[in-house]
């Protein structure tokens, strides 16, 4: 085989990595051969086979999305139609669970979602989908297809079907209850392990299997114990939604002898460096005190477990990490997730800095650089990878190119601040993963995707799913009562 081409990518700004942190070069160059970076700096003196000049742009490490939107999102329905439990965000107890999407539609959702992640500059994704429209949770076939999609598009992905032993329901009296089927949860875990083996056999340089139980309140002690063993056996990452809602901490308190969610995980042997924990908003258990919050922060710090912050989705739900500063001070690793549409890491970084300043009432609590680090180095640490989230010799050539030429970008003094506070995902012009061009000029180029067709089909599929909301919503009101437009729709005469 001929030696792989040495490619030089130059731009007005390059984010390299040196002395354990990012570093700016202006102008700068990244030189890579195959999947590996050879050089990052001002001037490479060796011979190169190909030159790419990105012009007035910020060339930096690709973003790592630890709670990546892997679905057709429905937030646009629920954002102004509250409360969620009355609007199909929790299923009615009398709903006979069934799959509301066909296999083909589920497959389409993966293509749609992964395409949007790439367009937003995400190079490493740990996707998540909703379990609300399903007969139970996800299955292995769905993820075999997800692996095909990720690989064909060129997205680096950690994949695994979500499984659960139980889920929330709205009871006939409007109270929130739970329904359990532990055997199903344990079978789901077995399938998830089988899927990890399959991904291993597949031997793709960009795919990994991981374990994705749905959320802590949907686990039983037996499922948590089995999960803990499976993580050891597979030596893989694991993600569990935890400390996310008041409902959850109350439920965990009730079923797990008054312990906090993090205590339950620690006791199950599940708090460790391979654990990814969205969203970390409710620390200290059901009745938090300063002491119980501090104890939970210590559990996180001592175990090296990773928090996943999703500022956009959290802010939309009127909540953010109040313990941001003590968590940081304790050295808890934090990465970012998109979790909702648009899967825009730049918007999440901007909102993350804003929300951190608001909840701490401290303008110095968080900087653009802090959140840029979370989207890159924090994510890499959470996934146990020292070769992604940074550009330096030996690292993977996972690169996101953000245009600084758009008038909407405003003025540039520091490119990180500019892209975080003035930019958004639509400014991403190119994405390279493992040395391969995946997005170029805002088009998918490894596997061509017709974005107009994708958009059209997504709208049709969304409208179909919307029509199924009455079936699974509390008291089954028609769509016209579940979802009202922002202003009265003028009646046609
Ligand atoms: Zn989430």
Structural commentary:
This protein has 493 residues and is of the alpha/beta class. It has a single domain, classed as TIM Barrel (Alpha-Beta Barrel). It has 16 helices and 24 strands. It has helices spanning 75-78, 103-119, 140-153, 182-202, 221-234, 246-255, 261-267, 290-303, 311-316, 324-329, 345-360, 368-382, 415-421, 451-466, 469-472, 479-482; strands at residues 6-11, 13-18, 21-25, 28-33, 36-41, 50-53, 57-61, 63-69, 91-92, 122-128, 156-159, 162-163, 166-170, 176-180, 207-209, 212-213, 238-239, 275-278, 306-309, 333-336, 399-403, 428-433, 436-440, 443-444. The strands form 6 sheets. The chain has a 7-stranded mixed sheet, covered by helices on one side. Strands 5-4-1-6 form a 4-stranded mixed sheet, with no helix packed on it. The protein has a 4-stranded parallel sheet with strand order 8-10-11-15. Helix 3 (140-153) packs parallel to helix 4. The radius of gyration is 22 Å and the shape is globular. Zinc ion binds at residues 67, 241, 278, 310, 339. Zinc ion is lined by residues 67, 241, 278, 310, 339.
């Amino acid at each position: 085989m001929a030696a792989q081409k040495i490619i030089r990518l130059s731009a007005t700004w390059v984010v390299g990595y040196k002395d354990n942190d990012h570093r700016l070069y202006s102008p700068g160059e990244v030189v890579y051969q195959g999947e590996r970076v050879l050089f990052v700096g001002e001037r490479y003196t060796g011979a190169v086979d190909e030159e790419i000049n990105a012009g007035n742009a910020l060339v930096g490490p690709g973003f790592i999305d630890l709670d990546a939107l892997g679905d057709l999102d429905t937030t646009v329905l629920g954002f102004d139609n509250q409360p969620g439990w009355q609007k199909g965000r929790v299923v009615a107890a009398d709903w006979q669970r069934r799959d509301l999407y066909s296999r083909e539609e589920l497959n389409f959702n993966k293509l749609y979602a992964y395409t949007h992640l790439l367009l937003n500059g995400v190079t490493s994704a740990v996707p998540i989908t909703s379990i609300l429209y399903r007969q139970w949770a996800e299955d292995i076939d769905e993820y075999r297809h997800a692996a095909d999609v990720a690989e064909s598009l060129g997205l680096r992905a950690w994949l695994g079907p979500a499984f659960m032993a139980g889920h929330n329901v709205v009871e006939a009296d409007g109270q929130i209850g739970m329904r359990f089927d532990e055997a199903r949860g344990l079978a789901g875990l077995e399938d998830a392990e089988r899927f990890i083996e399959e991904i291993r056999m597949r031997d793709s340089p960009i795919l990994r299997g991981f374990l994705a139980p749905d959320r802590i309140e949907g686990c039983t002690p037996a499922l948590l114990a089995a999960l803990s063993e499976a993580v050891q056996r597979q030596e893989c990452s694991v993600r569990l939604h935890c400390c996310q809602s008041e409902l959850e901490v109350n439920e965990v308190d009730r079923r797990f002898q008054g312990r906090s969610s993090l205590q339950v995980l620690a006791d199950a042997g599940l708090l460790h460096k391979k654990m990814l924990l969205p969203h970390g908003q409710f620390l200290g258990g059901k009745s938090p005190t300063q002491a119980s919050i501090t104890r939970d922060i210590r559990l996180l710090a001592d175990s090296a477990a990773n928090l996943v912050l999703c500022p956009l989705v959290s802010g939309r739900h009127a909540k953010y990490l109040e313990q941001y500063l003590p968590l940081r001070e304790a050295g808890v690793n934090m990465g970012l997730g998109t979790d909702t549409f648009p899967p825009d890491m730049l918007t999440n970084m901007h909102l993350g800095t804003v929300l951190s300043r608001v909840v701490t009432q401290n303008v110095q609590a968080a900087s653009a650089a802090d959140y840029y680090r979370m989207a890159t180095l924090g994510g890499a640490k959470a996934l146990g990878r020292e070769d992604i989230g940074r550009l330096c010799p030996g690292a993977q050539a996972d690169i996101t190119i953000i245009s600084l030429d758009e008038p909407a970008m405003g003025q540039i003094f520091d490119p990180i601040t500019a892209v975080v506070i003035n930019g958004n995902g639509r400014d991403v012009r190119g994405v390279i993963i493992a040395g391969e061009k995946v997005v170029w000029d805002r088009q998918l180029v490894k596997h061509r995707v017709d974005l107009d067709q994708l958009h059209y089909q997504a709208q049709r599929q969304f409208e179909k799913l919307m029509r199924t909301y009455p079936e699974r919503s509390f008291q089954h009101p028609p769509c016209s009562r579940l979802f009202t437009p922002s202003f009265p729709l003028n009646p046609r005469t």
